[in-house]
Amino acid sequence: MSKDYQNNIIDITDVELSPREPSVCLGNGEQGFECSCDECDYFLLCFPEFASNDEED
Fold first, then answer.
1. What is the DSSP letter of 10?
2. I need a surface site. Which of 3, 13, 24, 39 has the fewest CB within 10 A?
3. 37-52, pLDDT tens digit by residue?
């Protein structure tokens, strides 16, 4: 994923997303809008712990 991203992005449902700031993102399901995290293109910016490790030990 490219490190060049916009701070605020409008998704297909006209909700403003805030990559890397899941607590304030309007798409997080806690701000009065439906949660869109599972279909968000920027999911791994908010939740890097879910990134797969390509390196095998």
1. E
2. 3
3. 988 999 999 999 988 8
